[in-house]
Amino acid sequence: MNKTLLLSMTLLLTLSYASELKIVDKPIVFKKERIDLTKAYIKKHYGKSVSNIKIVPKVIVLHWTAEMSFNKSFNRLKPQRLLSDRKDIAKASALNVSAHFLVARDGTIYRLMPETYMARHVIGLNYSSIGVENVGGKSNKVDDLTKAQRVANVKLVKYLKKKYPSIEYLIGHHEYKQMESTSLWLEKDKGYRTVKADPGDDFMSYIFSKVKSLKLKHAPKAK
Questions:
Q1: Which of 17, 77, 184, 199 has its CA at 20 to 30 Å from residue 178's CA atom?
Q2: How far is residue 122 CA from its own chain's centroid?
Q3: Domain ranges in the chain?
Q4: b vs e for 59-81, b when ≥16 Cβ sit within 10 Å of the residue's Cβ?
Q5: So what's the pLDDT on residue 16?
Q6: CA separation for the pair 145, 134 (Å, rounded)
Q7: Is the peptide bond before 199 cis (omega within 30 degrees of 0)?
Q8: Tens digits of residue pLDDT in 81-105
Q9: CB-based burial, 5-39: b 16+ in 10 Å, e otherwise
Q10: What is the Cα–Cα distance from 22 to 24, expressed in whole angstroms?
Q11: Mind listing the pLDDT tens digit for each residue in 177-221?
Q12: What does 121-155 look like in DSSP terms, one character per residue?
């Protein structure tokens, strides 16, 4: 097979794959203040002095927003500084929470920030993970995520693993503390932990059942 034909086939496969996944760019505010707050977070919580906030993705973390409105979910992530009602994590940093992607109830995938910038979405693992938020999880208790969201998450996980071969793990936010036994865990503050329910075992089991070929690792079992 000559090189021209091979390149043509590769391009067609790439275009075909891209056509299956539509990502809408809808940036949150990510200016100098947020970058500086992120650097300070990395220094305080991970003990690293960095010149930029780029990461090498090793983990995909799936979440729900505990909010049924897309606009309200987006507006919580949009500001650079943490909102005043997040007293549970305010002492750790004024940096607002964020995620790389937000999946609407109809399955539309929105990219909120550069995929290789660090987002504040999961204690201990921000420096190596890509965060995916899903609109839903009413009262932060019920797995009410839609079929369209499940399908979108499967496509997004496949996209991310293909784009970043460095990704090794796929976990739910509720499993994050199980990652403390891995070399990826960086949190210096032993008292900085929160209890999470999202997105639940059923959701994660569904996603894993559809991405078996990727051979992604589960979070280590809780002891």
A1: 77
A2: 8
A3: 22-214
A4: bbbbbbbbbeebeebbebbbebe
A5: 46
A6: 7
A7: yes
A8: 999 999 999 999 999 999 999 999 9
A9: eeeeeeeeeeeeeeeeeebeebebebeeebbebbb
A10: 7
A11: 999 999 999 999 999 999 999 999 999 999 999 999 999 999 999
A12: -STTTGGGEEEEEESB-GGGT-----HHHHHHHHH
As given in the structure block, the two tokens for residue 144 are: 């009410």
Instruction: Using CA atoms of 141, 143, 148, 149 in order, give the dihedral in degrees to the nearest 10.
Output: 60
CA distances from 36 to 47, 124, 203 (A): 15, 19, 35
Predicted confidence at residue 20, as pLDDT, reads 75
Q: What is the pTM of this model?
A: 0.91
- Selecting from 3.40.50.1010, 3.40.50.970, 3.40.80.10, 3.30.230.10, what CATH number does the domain 22-214 have? 3.40.80.10
CA distance 74 to 25: 12
Asked if the model's pLDDT at residue 2 lies above 90, the reply is no
Q: How many CA atoms lie within 13 A of 202 on its CB side?
A: 8
Alpha-helix runs per DSSP H in the chain: 3-20, 32-46, 70-77, 147-163, 201-210
pLDDT of residue 1: 47
The structure tokens listed for 72 are 């309200």
Amino acid sitting at position 167: I
